[in-house]
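Posting for a labmate who doesn't have an account.
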Amino acid sequence: MRHWVQPSAPEPASVHRGLKLGDQLQVLVELYRRHARLLLTIAAVVQIPYAIVASMITAPLMDRFLRLSEELNLDLESPGPPGLTASLSPAPQTTGGPWWAEVTSQQMELLGSSLLLLALLALVGAIATTLAAGALAYAVSRLLEGLPVTVRSTYRETLRKVLSLAGIVMLPLVAMVVIVAAWCTIALVLGAAAGETMATGEGGLAALLLLIWIVGLVAAVIFISIRWAVATPSVMLEDRRAASALGHSWRLVAGDSWRVLGIVLLVGIAQTVLVTAVAELGRALFGLINADLVAGAVAQTLFSGLGGIIFGPILPIALTVLFYDLAARREGRPMPPMLRAA
């Protein structure tokens, strides 16, 4: 499929004025209800292998965190990362010094291997999320258009565009790293200034500037993420390359950033809560049988995969519907039949 070209003079009757939030949510629920088997199967193709691989990484990762906490005389109050709720709190020290001053080279090596495993888990999760999001966006677009779609055809199309999908993950990641690095450099300067002036009792202004700078960083990251929110549907529906899809998403969301932010937050938080609830339920049920923290962490990871299968399609459906809505508002693009009827 080539990029959709905006007509030079669309007929007024053919231009859809967009969907209200209630209409979009209604379409989301209706799509999920009608095509749950297909959507859940598409999600399962990615989530099942991901859950297995993630559990294989989680077991040694949790074991390392436990060993590190014992060697550093820390209390591990609850299961740790990833998808786990970790809380490391220092236990009373017997040597009189802070625990980080007593870290040995062996403990640093243990910490380093833990961080590598954590990074590997994040990478696996990013790959799984990207593939699932692309596949679901394609399937949802076919369903909205009233066209036939199967799990096989969905992933055949997704794999054909996998480099572009990877690009819309890597390019924003590089951009975010550059932004955060620049922001943190300035924050360190402000922090140093605050520290120096605190000694003289005049550090209030520098500390305030540092706080404003940190809040600004968070706001900038959120703003950029929202402007790129519909890049995946742009890749899958219009056969765009990564940079083109990101640019197209940026233009579509322009002027509607607050509305898009609200929709993404509403749907994203709902999906996260539901997936987390399934994961926590799995950990709680497993804890009744086996109190081992490592085994509990693995169980939580596996149940998180189950939650991803059941509720993972929610956000991709919402973003695909949102893409059509924004394209209709900005470019006069015709709505698919199911959305015209909404």
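Reply:
Got it, the structure tokens are right above this. The longest strand covers residues 74-76.
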